[in-house]
Amino acid sequence: LALLVCILIFFFLKWQKNFNQKTSFMLFLLLILIESDKALANILLTLMRNSIIETHTFLVSFVGKSNYFGVFGIYVYLIFITFLAFLSLKIRKKNISKKQILDI
């Protein structure tokens, strides 16, 4: 999770210079909300297991759906990070002149 957040922050900061700031912020906020949904579902599941809160049908439904769709989230993130990587390669500077043998 920490690696994912670091990668998202990197691309978010890189996009701030090249694209609309409002769009990139909304995308970043959407991804943060998805992650907080998973965290909230796990917290509610733990609280229901320990009988701290009562189990209502909408809570059980929310926890079940969040955990079910959370399994597929890693594939969505992999596709998203791959898309961002190709996009950042497309935006990079072209024809960089190299002056020495080992210049990168």
In words, what does this structure look like?
- It is a single chain.
- With 104 residues, the protein is mostly helical.
- It has one domain.
- α1 (2-18) packs antiparallel against α2 (21-49), α1 (2-18) runs parallel beside α4 and α2 crosses α3 (57-71).
- The chain contains four helices and no strands.
- The relative contact order is 0.09.
- This is DUF2318 domain-containing protein.
- Keywords: Membrane, Transmembrane, Transmembrane helix.
- The chain crosses the membrane at residues 25-48, 68-89.
Spell out the blueprint of helices and strands:
Elements (H helix, E strand, L loop, with lengths): L1 H17 L2 H29 L7 H15 L1 H19 L13
Helix pairs in contact: 1-2, 1-4, 2-3
Sum up the structure in keywords.
single chain, mainly alpha, elongated, 104 residues, membrane, 4 helices, DUF2318 domain-containing protein
- The fraction of residues assigned to DSSP E strands is under 5%
Count of helical stretches: 4
Shape: elongated
Query: Separation of termini?
Result: 31 Å
Q: What is the helix/strand order?
A: HHHH
How many domain modules? Answer: 1
Spatial extent as radius of gyration: 20 Å
Oligomer state of the chains in this structure? single chain
Low-confidence stretches: none
Structure class:
mainly alpha
Number of distinct beta strands: 0
**Portion of residues in helices?**
over 70%
Let me know the average pLDDT: 79
Biggest sheet layout: none
Keywords: Membrane, Transmembrane, Transmembrane helix
Protein name: DUF2318 domain-containing protein
Organism: Allotamlana fucoidanivorans
Transmembrane segments: 25-48, 68-89
